[in-house]
Design a protein that fits this description.
Helices cover about 30% and strands about 20% of the residues. It is α/β, with parallel strands linked by helices and about 230 residues long. It has 2 domains: about 120 residues, Tetrapyrrole methylase, N-terminal domain (Cobalt-precorrin-4 Transmethylase, domain 1), CATH 3.40.1010.10; about 100 residues, Tetrapyrrole methylase, C-terminal domain (Methyltransferase, Cobalt-precorrin-4 Transmethylase, Domain 2).
């Protein structure tokens, strides 16, 4: 009998924000797969360890996902990681693939699920608390009201600043070292003064920035900016 792959969301950082289902699935799996990718190295593992002490009795496999946008390197790493997972599934072992935040939002798991299913194995997602929802709660603000839309923008990617012109609240993720460009784009649209940022929400070293004047290229990879409507002149 083949094993099953689970993409398990561990939430944004606070172990108490892991769902009961995520805890149950990790407990039921024989193998835990942990992504290793720059700033995310071992973070998901550390969160899960605090919520599920039994995890130390599981077989752990580390999967390499380098911080690169090179299509060739990414394809090779995704293929290699899928092969590692498939090896365990063929042995009849179920695998819990840990992912930060929610598994459906900017998660490497999507590439694994596609490949694993193509190999004939079963795979499913276990939902979790998205990082930007945790940030909004930390700031004590509502992301949406009535018919107002919400936009999730990968801020460090080319053309992403076009989303700042849309009506509604904007969540800016993946700012990275392009924080300077993001700040400029926000200023140009009258969104800068009321934008707020949280670094490492729910993690050690959490920092709330009520002004983006405090943000620079040294800001954590785990940073999210929330910007509302354009302010009147």
């Amino acid at each position: 009998m083949q094993g099953r792959l689970y993409g398990v969301s561990v939430g944004p950082g606070d172990p108490e924000l892991m769902t009961l289902k995520a805890v149950r699935v990790i407990r039921s799996c024989e193998v835990v797969a942990v992504p290793q990718s720059g700033a995310e190295t071992q973070v998901a593992w550390k969160i899960a360890c605090e919520a599920v002490p039994e995890i130390f009795s599981k077989q752990k496999i580390d999967l390499s996902f380098p911080m690169t946008r090179d299509p060739g390197r990414l394809e090779a790493c995704h293929t290699a990681a899928a092969a590692q997972i498939a090896e365990q599934l063929e042995k009849g072992k179920s695998v819990a693939f840990l992912t930060l935040g929610d598994v459906s939002i900017y998660s490497t798991y999507a590439y694994m699920q596609e490949r694993i299913r193509a190999l004939g194995f079963e795979a499913e997602m276990v939902a979790g608390v998205p990082s930007f929802c945790a940030v909004a709660s930390r700031l004590g603000i509502s992301l949406t009201e009535a018919a107002k839309p919400l936009h999730i923008i990968p801020a460090s990617y080319e053309g992403a600043d076009e989303g700042l012109d849309w009506n509604g609240v904007k969540v800016l993720m993946k700012t990275g070292k392009k924080i300077g460009q993001v700040k400029t784009a926000l200023r140009e649209r009258g969104l800068y003064q009321q934008a707020r940022m949280v670094e490492r929400c729910g993690m050690e070293g959490e920092r709330i920035l009520d002004s983006l004047d405090q943000a620079d290229e040294a800001s954590s990879y785990f940073s999210i900016i929330i910007a509302g409507e354009r302010q009147p002149d």
